[in-house]
Amino acid sequence: MLVLASVLVFQGYRGMSSGLVSAASQSTRQLSTTLNDRLKAATEPTRSALRILAHDPLTRASSLPERQARLPVLAETLRTNELVTAAYVGYPNGDFFLLREAATATLQERFNAPPNARFLLQTVTQNGETVGEWHFFNANLERLTRQAKPDYRFDPRTRGWFSQATVSEDTILAGPYVFFTTRDIGITLARQSATNRAVVGLDVTLSDLSQQLTGLKLTPGTQMAVVDGTRTVIAHPELHRLMAANDNDGLARLPDLTSPALAGIPEQTLRTSQPQPFRANGQDWFGMIVPLSDLGTDKLSLRLAIPSQELLAGAWQVVRGQALIAAAILIVLLLLGWFLGRRIGQPLKHLAGQVDELAHFRFDTGIDTSSRIREAGELARALSSMANTIRGFQRLALTLNREQRLDVMLQGVLEQLIRVLGRHSGAIYLLDRKTHVLNRAAECQAGHHPEQLDPVDTTTDDETLVDRLRSELGEQSVFSILRDRENHLLGALVIDLTPDDETLDRDLITFVSEVAGSAAVAIETRQLIQSQRDLLDGVIHLVADAIDAKSPYTSGHCERVPQLAEMIIDSARHQTGGDFADFHMNDSEAYEFHIAAWLHDCGKITSPEYVVDKATKLETIHNRIHEIRTRFEVLHRDSHIRYLQARLKGEPEAAAREIRDREQAALQRDFRVIAETNLGGEALEDETIATIHRIGDRTWLRHFSDRIGLSQEEERRLPDMPEPHGPVVERLLDDKPQHLVPWGDRVPPVRPDDPHNRWGFDMALPPYSYHFGERYNLTIPRGTLTPEERFHINDHIVQTIRLLDNLPLPEHLSRVPRLAGTHHERMDGEGYPYRLHGSAMTIPEKAMAVADVFEALTAVDRPYKRGKTLSEALGIMAKMVWEGHLDGTVFRLFLEGGIYRQYGERFLHADQQDDVNHDDLLSRAGFSDQAPTR
């Protein structure tokens, strides 16, 4: 009823709207016809008068008196054509002769005319100079006054109507435009005289078009305008808006009217006969563009915009009346329908409420209803049976889908299935793929089924397998063979019958088979997940073992750090108070952390081994101290040669020996300085650095080419200059251009402004990949690594993140790259590769950092250092906490939870496990009253 009433009201509204729009269209067409008639009335009589004037002697008169003698002709033309406001002649020499009526008070005031003036004669003559005059005449053409107008310098030859008429043999029409003297809007009809010497023109005003538009509005808000082809407005209900702003000679254009509605009428309305809807200035409108008769070269059209609300106001009023009537009828019918429907539908409503309980997954709801409708009772009984079935299947589905552990899932499925079937015992057997033995995986009523069945032939069909199982487990059982999606044998489902069960309902047998199929899929899925997880763990351990095996200096690191990190996290998970009371981690998150911990240094696969194992400052692939020793040997021999040469020259033997021995002793001392510095022990002092440069400045002669026997990489680093002729003087220690190894096209994306840095790394990048300069390496302030080599060491964490980020990790492992790649960050934001502050790091990330540092300090399998004791390692870590390197809360948990002691018992030597003073370490770490001060 509501739809029907709505459709009827809507159709009534559409019919009314269509009628109003059609009426508006018809009214607009009538308006355009009226305007066209007005335009024809303005131009047709004028054309006739103009053809007569073209033959008048006035066109041939050369003096002002001769021309004034023809005034009656012009005056009669003005009297007989009420729309003509001026009649005039323009001469080829620039003379101009114009007569206009000046009878109205407005014109007399504008022209400052004398009383009784009826006509105004405007003349311009060219007698060597331009002379402009105005003559006022009464109705009998008797002159009243004559006024000289020096400023009146009108030249007809410059006007468009003159130039157009001189090249045409017919009457031309110019305009619309603003008249020169009266500032009225009108058109000019002009024609060349019969003698082709002058142009006769008549001005016709169009101001009454605007007055007609004012009285023809269809609604109060209707907007109208007559425009030409250039969108210039020539008629508008408001006359003062016709003039263009800041333009004394031009007409306003359509955009100048500040009327978005008129300007926004779609141009395609020219091709339609009905007003078209459009929207402008936030309001709905109906618009039309109707062509008018031509005035000159530009097409005229009438633009009409009617507010939609005003045009359809009548339709809305009718619609409101119809809606009220329809509403009244609806109320009566609805009351009657409600009374009758309530008597019939109350039982159905009760049943619907019970069904709604089922729809909200409350399958324990009882389904019953008392209804006179037979189908409602049958539906209630069917729904009750369905609810019981769904309730049992729901518990089975939850067990199949939610339980992750295979043994628990199988036990739960078996128990639910036994309960649904109303039986008491059963079992599930799974196949061992290696031995083909069926092992019992789940059982109801223990002791009824053997733990293991003899090996079976996995290639036999299901019927043969069932016969085999029936022979071993008894005839009073229902068997369902479990197979995966590729039909491989997985196991068997056994449901025991009671002695009273001669047969089992066929529907229940089908149900058992379907559940067995679902169980088989769930078993296969969990076995696949477990095998994939085992494979992933195996690959992870393989990578970790490969990294540890790559270098003796990091042996065992990738295996011990994950175990220590997991010990810290397990301790944090079991905290019920303090800083870790709110810390929780489910099994999936723990597994994610486990993988990240094992892969935390996988990027070391890319680290150059000779950099990781660099034990001396001059070491690259080999220790270059041997090259430098050879140079010292050369200088040593040169000293002895100079001694022998002095002897041959007859110099005293004692003096020559003293010089040689002094030089060789100095060489021995200098080499010892170089050799000891090469070890990279304590920090270099400025004096030692100066000594190295002094030693390096010594020279020796090289007689062999240094540009042969080189690899392509070494040749690319040679300076682009010709090889000098030998022997070549070289310094004992030097930093040569070929010692610099550029990055080339393999610049690591670690700078924040690098467009390839999509990981957000923030690390300083050395200008060169390597710097093998001998002085540069020997003057390393501390240790054996240059800044470039230190970057390559640190770059392992960047490579770790990049390698892991490229893996197709599932959603529950998506944080593995972040967890594995932040253990070198510092709490003060000075770490790498992200420069994270402690507030931006999670507890697992902080725990990984603590584990990495402690393992490195206590490792006993590093050949280049001894493993530190517990107290030494924890003392260093306490200082690192104070300096903002490590997190204080994790360090305190590590300390107070005794995790370091558990780790030491598993991995450290007995002599490393000394006593530890917790209070002293916490104080050194900045803890005061159980709260960190830094």
TrEMBL record:
Residues 342-395 form the HAMP domain. Gene3D superfamilies: 3.30.450.40, 6.10.340.10, Hypothetical protein af1432 (1.10.3210.10), PAS domain (3.30.450.20). One of its GO terms (biological process) is signal transduction. InterPro entries: GAF-like_dom_sf, HAMP_dom, HD/PDEase_dom, HD_GYP_dom. GO terms for cellular component: membrane. Residues 701-909 form the HD-GYP domain. CDD domains: HDc. GO terms for molecular function: phosphoric diester hydrolase activity. This is Phosphodiesterase.
